[in-house]
Amino acid sequence: MKTAIPILIALLFFSGCAARKYSIRPDDLSDWQMVERQVYSNQNDLKKAYGNNSQMLLGYQVKKAVIQTLRSADYKEIKVEIFITTDEANARNLYRRYQSITKVLIGTEGSQTPGFVSFYRGNNFVRITAMRNLTGKDQYLIDVARAIDKKLM
Questions:
Q1: Do the beta carbons of residue 53 and residue 40 sit within 8 Å?
Q2: Neighbours of 75 (CB within 10 A)
Q3: How large is the average pLDDT for residues 20-33?
Q4: How many CB atoms lie within 10 A of CB 38?
């Protein structure tokens, strides 16, 4: 029992470090700050967070989701969802559910539509959504996607 506690602490520390690597920091994007961050690392968390959509995510073997809300000084908001799957095939198939017609050079494969960018790289599927005050300013979404993609390389 005494050895189980240090092992549990180490596992919690390293899983937190892995999730932090995906987080947007001020030096990644000037004028943007992360105002909220959630990490869902098991099936129960995903079910609580995504309700009926959790079954679809679990079907693509999502093992962790890192959700961030970014806000600029002038109150623009972006929601970033990073889904970490068990392998690249699941990330690619999840991406294909959300891809749009306009392709962008981000990740292994990426696409955009007004107010939305998605891509995958490795076993990670990323979707970025405009939340507030971003109408017609999709370059912000592309910038965030490129910053995350750089972290995933």
A1: no
A2: 8
A3: 62
A4: 13
Q: What's the token pair of residue 56?
A: 């679809």
What does 37-97 look like in DSSP terms, one character per residue? EEEE-SHHHHHHHHTTHHHHHHHTTEEEEEEEEEEETT--EEEEEEEEESSHHHHHHHHHH
| pLDDT of amino acid 105 | 95
d(CA 14, CA 150): 21
The rounded distance, in Å, linking the Cα atoms of 45 and 64 is 9
pLDDT in tens, 51-97: 888 899 999 999 999 999 988 888 888 899 999 999 999 999 999 99
pTM of the model: 0.81
